[in-house]
Design goal:
CATH topology: N-terminal domain of TfIIb
Structural class: alpha+beta
CATH class: Mainly Beta
Number of helices: 1
Order of helices and strands: EEEEH
Number of strands: 4
Strand content: 15-25%
Largest sheet: 4 strands, antiparallel
Length: 82
């Protein structure tokens, strides 16, 4: 007689996602900066909910929200060092 085949368990792998919400260096509130990337127009917009700070920049198709936030922080440091 033939043995009954057992079904292998499916292992689901969770893909980690990057955050789109960050801390604001101006008003010191946590998770108040929201980054929105428009892939069609290749424009990224960064906006703080509390202090209404806004920043826009051009992006490429590979840009992630953390990249936009990092570019904004670098730009802020450059302006403050003058």
């Amino acid at each position: 007689m033939a043995k009954k085949k057992t079904k292998q368990k499916v292992i689901k792998v969770k893909i980690p996602t990057l955050s789109t919400v960050f801390d604001c260096p101006y008003c010191n509130n946590k998770k108040s900066i929201h980054v929105k990337i428009t892939k069609k127009e290749l424009v990224a917009e960064l906006k703080c909910i509390n202090c209404s700070t806004e920043w826009k920049c051009k992006t490429n198709p590979l840009t992630e929200p953390i990249d936009v936030y990092s570019m904004w922080i670098d730009e802020c440091e450059k302006i403050n060092s003058r």
